[in-house]
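Section 3.1: Structural characterization of target chains.
Under the original work plan, the team committed to producing a structural model for every single-chain target entering the pipeline before any wet-lab resources were allocated. The record below documents one such target. The sequence was received from the expression subgroup and is listed exactly as submitted; it comprises 439 residues.
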Amino acid sequence: MIHPTTTRVLTADLAAHLERRVTVCGWVHALRLMSAMQFVVVRDHSGSVQLTRRRDGGPLEALLDSLTPESAVRITGRVVAAPQVKLGGLEIVPETVEVLGRAEVSLPIDDRTGPERRADWRFLDVRRRAAAGLVFAVQTTFEQGLRAYAAAQGCTEMHTPKLMGTASESGAEVFEVGYFGRSAYLAQSPQFYKQMAVAAGIDRVFEIGPVFRAEPSYTSRHMTEFTGLDVELSWIDDVEEVMAFEERMLAHAIAAVVEVHGERIREVFGVEPVVPQLPFPRMTMAEAQQVLRAGGWDPEGVKEDLDPEGERRLAAHVRAEHGHEFVFVTHYPAAIRPFYHKRPEGRLDLTLSFDLLWQGLEVTTGAQREHRSEVLLAQATEKGMSTEPMREYLDVFRYGCPPHGGFGAGLARLLMVLLGLESIREAVFLFRGPHRLTP
């Protein structure tokens, strides 16, 4: 006896409905219209199923013959066992087919289309490729893991302004926009507002939100607009507390991804997502430079920082020495860090700051902040900065700001490493770069 199922069933769940009538919704993926048989593969976000029908000259035969690839359809039919079918050993014998949205005959992209053209038709690209759709399922779980950890640690989620009256950070590489007859700037970071929040007595804050960087960078890891993860913790004793918070937060979120999507990630991306061991290795910048230069790294013009090649070499060293994919590089020189990074006692040439490298890619920058008003002002003056545009920022520290520190990371860059993607473009729905503002 066939029992009707009136609600939609995903193709991934069809095995639980063997010999039942089901309704499946999806897109026409492939058509094989033979002289005696009609085969149609229908795809939804969870997988694919084959429809099989013997020709009988009826209206359903004519409808199947008229289908076009990527048309949106609703099919009702019986799920039957078909061991010869590669798509799960099941197929549907259709009873009714509704064309909900007919696709034009000639698609603008196919499997041979290059990345720029695919980006023009991103909605079709994501729909047609299982890997593209899986990225956003993983992103959802990853963000949930980050938020769950932050909440469990007593953090308050903030939503800070993205329009600012003065440029955030250093003032360079910002987007200027018209604002009622004057200029405003798109926020490079919620840094100012995070620090204002801890000064307001909100002990621990985090935000997952948009960040804008007017960087003319054309690499596989840069974007002009991205989603940032930012955290700020008050009443800390040292920067180690910030690093410990981040490594536990990332480990928690990665564990959630492995639990929910681990098998699918291995199947689609061919990578093994690994929950990292705690704590992550730590290495000062001086130590990193010593290790790299001993190994022959000597890039022209790089004296105090790491270039991408240096980051990759350091990751290989840490992997060989510690068997770990992560490493914190700490104590960056004050000359290459922002004025608001705190400096250790007796070493004013260094900062209590860090970058986190994951598989040789920088994914995080963080630091303990300088919370003492007079020291912060002196460090800004030392760097030759005009303090007038920063007056509101500096006011935050004049009336009793607690010791604090935090970090910022790009969500897409984290996903890029986690899933082994070649370009950050594959880790976002719609990429924004110096030459792309559409779709």
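The chain has a mean pLDDT of 94.
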